[in-house]
Every structure is written in C-alpha cells, then in structure tokens.
Amino acid sequence: MRSIAFVLLLPTRPIAAHVVRSGKWCFGSCETVVTYATFNDTSPGSKKARLCEGILRATSLYLCIDEFCAESGRETWLQDANDTCIQRVNATLPPYEIIEQFRPEERSGLKRLSADEAFTWPTLNEVVIPDEEFFERAFTTLDAAYFEYDIHRIYGYVLFYFWAVVVSIGVGSKVVSLIQDLRRQDLHRVTASPDEFNHYRKNYGIPRSLQTLLKRYITVPAAFNSRCSQPFKCCTVPTRIQSLTILAFVVLNIVLCSVGYRLTDGNLYWPTQRDQLLRFVSDRTGIISLINFPLIWLFGMRNNTLIWMTGWDFGTYNNFHRWVARVSTAQAVIHSIGYTIMICERDGLASLMRYLHKTYFWNGELATILMCALIAFSVYGLRRSHYEVFLAVHIVCSVFILVTMYYHVLIFGAWEWNGFVYPCVAVWVFDRLLRGGRILAFNYRVWNTKATATYNPDSHIVSLRVPCNKSWAKPQPGTYYYIYVVDEPLYAHQSHPFTLAYVSTEIERPDLQLPLSSISERPSAHRANSNDSSESDALLQSADSLSKPDSLVFLIRPYDGFTGRLAKRAASHRTSVRVLIEGPYGHTVPLRTFTNILFVVGGTGIVVPLSHMSSLLSETSSVVNLRVVWAVREHAFLASVLRDFRALIDDERIQLEVHVTQDIQVTDDVPANGLKRVKLMPGRPAVHSVVEEMAMESGYDGLAIVACGPAKMADEARKACVAMLGRGVGGVEYFEEKFKW
Ligand SMILES: Cc1cc2nc3c(=O)[nH]c(=O)nc-3n(C[C@H](O)[C@H](O)[C@H](O)COP(=O)(O)OP(=O)(O)OC[C@H]3O[C@@H](n4cnc5c(N)ncnc54)[C@H](O)[C@@H]3O)c2cc1C
Ligand SMILES: NC(=O)c1ccc[n+]([C@@H]2O[C@H](COP(=O)([O-])OP(=O)(O)OC[C@H]3O[C@@H](n4cnc5c(N)ncnc54)[C@H](OP(=O)(O)O)[C@@H]3O)[C@@H](O)[C@H]2O)c1
Ligand SMILES: *[C@@H]1O[C@H](CO)[C@@H](O)[C@H](O)[C@H]1NC(C)=O
Ligand SMILES: *[C@@H]1O[C@H](CO)[C@@H](O)[C@H](O)[C@H]1NC(C)=O
Ligand SMILES: *[C@@H]1O[C@H](CO)[C@@H](O)[C@H](O)[C@H]1NC(C)=O
Ligand SMILES: *[C@@H]1O[C@H](CO)[C@@H](O)[C@H](O)[C@H]1NC(C)=O
Ligand SMILES: *[C@@H]1O[C@H](CO)[C@@H](O)[C@H](O)[C@H]1NC(C)=O
C-alpha cells in the first residue's frame, strides 16, 4: 500500500511495487527499470495487463533481479507480485526458473537498456537487461524515496517523545512537591519551636538556592514584559516556563521539517533536486501535521488525563493546544501549497482542475482551509467578545476537519494514516462521556437539580445555590464546576465554569431554601475557636465537618451572555432554575501546609479564599498567618460576605484588608466596624507593597501567594513574587487561579 504514495502523482510508476524491505528496494528497482519498455508480446490493451503478461517482460525482470539483487527476500517479493497480478488482471507471472535457459555467455550477449533509451519509452521485441548506471539510478531513487517515507513518520513520532518528556517532568515535579508538602506537615508535627523548625528545615531541605533560582527565572515569571494574564498586543503570552516549552516545541517542529532530506542526482521520479526537495518537504509537513492531530485534541479537552497526571491546570494545556494547532496548521498549509505547485507545474490549471475531482485531493485542500479558518476564528478578540460564537465555530470546524482528513488519507488504507485520525475521535468521545458521567455523578436524576438564584443589584452579584446532597464527589476548596441552565431551551447547551465559593452545611430549618442574603440575617455568633462551629451558617466544608454538605454556593458576576441572562431571571425575585452541574474540575492547591498565606483577589475572585478558608483554619492545617487583600467595587458585596463569613473571619489568624474602590459611602449595614480583623481601605490595593510586606514578615517560612482577580492585578502579584524571590526570599510560592483562558 505504501507505494501508492508515489503513484499518486506519478501514474507512470509500476503498480505492482510490493517492495520487500529487506530487499532494500532492489526488486522494485528492477521493476521500475523494466517498466520503461513496452514488450511486443503483450496485448496492446490495458496498461495494467501489460505489467503482468508476456514472457519477455518477466524474463527481463528476472534477469535484472538475478544480476543486481541479493537472493534474500526474493521469493516473498515474487509471490507478492504474482498475487497482485492475479488480483488485478487474473494473470500469473511465469516461474522464476524460466531464466535458467540463459547461460552466462548468453546473458552478456543480451541487449543492455540504457537510461537514455529508456526515456524514449521504447517498444521492444526482445529480452533486455538494464545497464548498471541505469539500474543504479533506479535503485538510489527508490532508496531515497522509501528512506524519506520512513523518516517522515519517525520524525513525527519524535513529537510524541517530546511531550512524553514534558509530561514526565510535570509528573516528577508533582511528586517532588507532594513530598515537600508531606515534609512540611511532618516538620510542623515533629518540631515544637519555630527555631528548631527553621534549623531542621535549613539543614535537611532540598537545595534551596537552586529551587529559588528555578522559581525566580523559570517557573514563576511571565515570559517577558511581566504580562501574563493581560493580553500583549492583542494576544496572550503564557508564563515563561510554558513559553519555553512551546518555543522548544516550535523549534523542534522547524528542525524536523528541515533536516534529513536525501537528495540524489539522476533521480528517476523527480529529475532535479529542487523537485525532490519540494516533494519531500510537502510530504514531511503533511505527515507531521497529521501526527500533531491527536495532541491537539488531547490538550484541548476538559477531561484530559494529563491534567490529572501533572496537576497542571486546563489553562496550561489550553496554551499547548493552541500552539500545537498553530504549528500543525502551518505545516498543513506548506503541504497543500507544495502539492498544488507540483500539480500546476505539470500542465497548469488543467491538471489542477483534474486533481480537484479526486476525493482525496479536494478533501485535503478543504481540511487545510478549515484549519486556517479555525485559527482565524480563535483570535483573542473574538474569544473575548463572542465566546459562544467562537465555541460553535470551533466545534463545527473540528468535526469537518476530522471528516475531510479521514477522506484525505483514506486512499492509503483504513489504518495507514487514519491511525492518527481515530485517536482524535476517541479522545473526543471519551471527554464527552466523562462529561456526562460527571453530570450523572453529581445527581443521577439529572433533570431534577433545582438551584436557587438570587440577584442583588447593589452588590451586582448572582448567588446560585445548588443542592448537592446526591453528589458522589466531595466538594473540595478551589475546585470549579461547569453550570448549564437547562430550562432555557435556546441556551441549554452552554456551560460556564464557576469556582465553588463555599458549601453550606445547614441543619434542617424551614428556611432551608433561602438564598444567601437571607441566611445572613440569622444570628451567627460562633467564634471559630468554639466547639460548635459545624452548625455555623454558610460554613465551608471543612475536613472535620460532621454534617453532610447540603448545597454548593456560587457567587457569579453578571456579564453579557449566560451570566447576564441568569441575573435578569433572578432580578425580580428569588428564582428556581433547573441546572446541570458538571464537576468538580481543577484541583485544590496544597495551601494547608504553608505557615503564611496571602490572597490577592479582586471582585468575585474572593470566592477562592472563601472556599479555602475553613479548611485552612481547621485544626490540622499549619496556617499561622492568613491575609486576604480584596479589591471590591460594591459595598453591598463586601457586606454580604462579611455577614456570611463573620464566624470565620473572626479567627485571630486572619487579616482581611478590603479596598472598596467604587461606592465609597459607608452604609450602616456594613458590620465591618464590629470586626476587628477587617481593615477597610480606600482605593486600589498596592499589590507590590502588600506582597513585599508579607514576604518580609514571613522570612524563611513558607509563604503562599494566591492571586485571583483582574489580569493586571494578577500580573502585578506575579511580578512582586519574582522580585521577592530575587531578594532571596526563597519560601515564596505563587499560585494563580484564572477566571479565563
Ligand atoms: C476556572 C474558572 C472559574 C470561574 N469562577 C467564577 C466565579 O466563581 N464567579 C464568577 O463570577 N465568574 C467566574 N468565572 C468566570 C465565568 O466563567 C465567566 O464570567 C462566564 O463564563 C461569562 O459568561 P457570559 O456568557 O456571561 O460571558 P460573556 O459576557 O459572553 O463574556 C465575558 C467573558 O467571559 C469569557 N467566557 C465566556 N464564556 C466562557 C466559558 N465558558 N469559559 C471561559 N470563559 C468564558 C469570555 O471570553 C469573556 O471574556 C470563572 C472562570 C473560570 C475559567
Ligand atoms: N468579561 C471579563 O473580562 C470577565 C468575565 C468574568 C470574570 N472575569 C474576571 O473575574 C475576576 C473578577 O471579576 P469581577 O467582575 O468580579 O471584578 P470587578 O468587579 O471588576 O472587581 C475588580 C476589582 O479589582 C480592582 N482592581 C482592578 N485592577 C487592579 C489593579 N491592577 N490593582 C489593584 N486593584 C485592581 C478594581 O478596582 P477599580 O474599581 O478601581 O477598577 C475592582 O475593585 C477578574 O479576574 C476578572 O478579570 C472577567
Ligand atoms: C481467470 O482466468 C482463468 C483462466 O486463465 C479462468 O478460468 C478464470 O475463470 C478467471 N477468473 C476470473 C475471476 O476471471
Ligand atoms: C505465480 O503463480 C503461479 C500459479 O499460482 C505459479 O505457477 C508461478 O510459478 C508463480 N510465479 C512466480 C514468479 O512465483
Ligand atoms: C515488435 O516491435 C518491433 C520494434 O521493435 C516492430 O518493428 C515489430 O513490428 C513488432 N512486432 C509485433 C509482432 O508487434
Ligand atoms: C437532599 O436535600 C433535599 C432538600 O434539599 C431533600 O429533599 C432530600 O431528601 C435530600 N436527599 C438526601 C439523600 O439527603
Ligand atoms: C471544646 O470542648 C472541650 C470539651 O469537649 C473543652 O475542653 C474545650 O475547652 C472547648 N473549647 C472551646 C474553645 O470552647
């Protein structure tokens, strides 16, 4: 089947080219050579028949083989050729032994076919043997062609090895950080005094300076320019470590597409080296482009096994997804242009039109066009402003790309190259099945998840309360769920991610279904130190909580689409909405083992510290100093959070610094005055100095900085962390919870 690759553009190639690898293409070379001549003893009809009939042709072929080829593999090759002839034209090749009649001296008297004569496509009435130069040319031609065919695929597989290495590094670093977490925990348990602790740590820790250097220069900073969450010239630039990985991948692709071309003189298929290069480059790029396909699909899925293995978030893989797709598209374009040039060079537009009628050809061209369209429709601007349009185009185009690619490579056989298309389908189906599975696992009576939405115009926040007592998965802090609102027929397919703000573990009460703002009216006099905190209102799920979680609460900021519609529905009164919940996704960052934690959050980013809070303040955690710096526009939002979390916020380990940036006038319902651990401040927070202050306070102890907020804020926090690492505060770890990707 592999020989088809060359037949496609070269109808003059022999059709029965079942080359045996071990024969080093020798038998195929003889066949190529002999096919230049038309022998008199064949019926003048079909071309196919001429390749199988007649004693003259067979004898010439066998004599060539006998003269130029080693014996090993010959039987198999002849068998194959024979079978092909039987299949195609119901004719058999004569037995190999027919050449025994030619004794050596007779052979030397036979006609020698030279290349020059062969190129005139002679009609012959006698047995011929190619002269050595002609045979050598045929042999190097085939040798180079099949060498390329193999190397294209091998180079494509190199990309899999590349990602295997990247993922192994991820798994390795995950294991290392797990060990470090365990050790941090042990240290807290084993050592009593901070001095002892620090001594222990300094002497037995992993080489710290190396780690600090790595963090400072590689893993934490933005690629350049300290812009990571914010777009840079209408694109987004991933973090430095991700950018380096992507850069390595792109460079690897360029290298793999530029080396390993075996160009030969006197090539029979493509006379000039330029032609050979054109053909080989076109093939190489086409093949590597296709081999990239499974990676694109794998990296783009919500349910990506690699996310579970490495602990890297969806955003990271999404960056990889984009870049693999871009590289693959560029390769597809080169492949298509290359082939189009080759075809047009034969006899212009006429041959192009002829090829456009071939299924494999127009499907291939269409696939390239669709890939380009997909990239064009994924630009940052469109993704930002019309996410749903982007998503719909993305899915439709992807389906068509897979279908057209299937037909493009089908001529090589069902598996030869479609072996790279099927995995994409498999990955996609797997993802969709798992999505369904997660929805079922949340509530097996999927139609019956009734959430309560409340919109407060003052705080401009929708709070969505979803009963979760049927969920199999225990809610974890910092995880997020995709929410579908199914009773809006037109939009039921839309799902949007939201971070779990907290789990309310209420005891049976008549007002169980009350929304967030109403719960806060209830007395909440528990101190965090008290023993009865588990019945506290709106309390977070904590490790040692006794009562079963009752409902998940999401705090949602309305924008224009899905969230806007939700707000509109909930605007007038409390509304019951039928939802599907898909999750949890994401993983809990291991904050519990840190002594000092700083959250830098803006707006709805507050859900991240809220969801972690009770776990961080539980007995088993090692947190000593938890500081939350929160920029919020609406006073009412602040007020509701303070009411609901009063019990927790009163813990002495917490310090909450709130910057109300818009409606400054302090109304009476803000209970902040009563809470001594809450500091109200005007204006935006100075992120850099907050980080600096905290880093200086914590000294050599571990400090976790978690940012979740507007892009600029997150970038400032990241930059400040890098600066702290630069000053030798090695214990700083930076985590970012992104609300968009
Ligand atoms: C992991 C994660 C957790 C989140 N947690 C919260 C939360 O707790 N509270 C909260 O208020 N918001 C949260 N968000 C943001 C929330 O998902 C978006 O605000 C929401 O999807 C916007 O929907 P829309 O149709 O109203 O958006 P539009 O008005 O159409 O667009 C607003 C913005 O949201 C982006 N966006 C739209 N749909 C999606 C989507 N399905 N996935 C990712 N981005 C999208 C768009 O690119 C655009 O930038 C979270 C986002 C992520 C990725
Ligand atoms: N459409 C979207 O882009 C979209 C959709 C969903 C979620 N999100 C993301 O979700 C998060 C919260 O959204 P939200 O709407 O709840 O936020 P928000 O209401 O806009 O609140 C953001 C707060 O952060 C402050 N702030 C902004 N930039 C800052 C900076 N550089 N330094 C210090 N403080 C800064 C703001 O102050 P000022 O009042 O002075 O600006 C404001 O108080 C953000 O990450 C946001 O990007 C975005
Ligand atoms: C093939 O050819 C043989 C005779 O050469 C004939 O008997 C046979 O029926 C043919 N088979 C087919 C399928 O044409
Ligand atoms: C091809 O097959 C026929 C019959 O099956 C056999 O007689 C002949 O020897 C074979 N030729 C070769 C070259 O194997
Ligand atoms: C065979 O080929 C020769 C040319 O080499 C031609 O002159 C001759 O007529 C042909 N004979 C038959 C029987 O076709
Ligand atoms: C789950 O909660 C609902 C009310 O929110 C209640 O009717 C139902 O019985 C509860 N189910 C279980 C299994 O606890
Ligand atoms: C909690 O209860 C135990 C006894 O069950 C008591 O010894 C302890 O002092 C209580 N702690 C607080 C903070 O009330």
Offer a few descriptive terms.
741 residues, alpha/beta, 4 domains, six-stranded parallel sheet, 12% strand, elongated, disordered N terminus, binds NADP nicotinamide-adenine-dinucleotide phosphate, binds 2-acetamido-2-deoxy-beta-D-glucopyranose
Task: Describe it.
- The protein is built from 25 helices and 17 strands.
- The protein starts with a helix and ends in a 5-residue tail after the last strand.
- 41% of the residues are buried.
- Residues 1-22 and 507-546 have low confidence and may be disordered.
- Helices cover 50% and strands 12% of the residues.
- Helix 12 (273-300) crosses helix 14.
- With 741 residues, it is α/β, with parallel strands linked by helices.
- Strand 12, helix 21 and strand 13 (625-632) form a beta-alpha-beta unit.
- It folds into 4 domains: 2-130, no CATH class; 147-435, no CATH class; 441-585, no CATH class; 591-736, 3-Layer(aba) Sandwich (Rossmann fold), CATH 3.40.50.
- The chain has a 7-stranded antiparallel beta sheet.
- Flavin-adenine dinucleotide binds next to helix 16, strand 8, strand 10 and helix 20.
Quick overview:
This protein has 25 helices and 17 strands.
Poorly predicted regions are 1-22, 507-546
Shape: elongated
Report on the biggest sheet. 7 strands, antiparallel
Alpha plus pi helix count: 25
Oligomer: single chain
How many domain regions? 4
Number of strands: 17
End-to-end separation in angstroms reads 44 Å
Could you tell me the radius of gyration in angstroms? 35 Å
User: Which small molecules are bound?
Assistant: flavin-adenine dinucleotide, NADP nicotinamide-adenine-dinucleotide phosphate, 2-acetamido-2-deoxy-beta-D-glucopyranose
Residue share in β-strands: 5-15%
Report the structural category.
alpha/beta
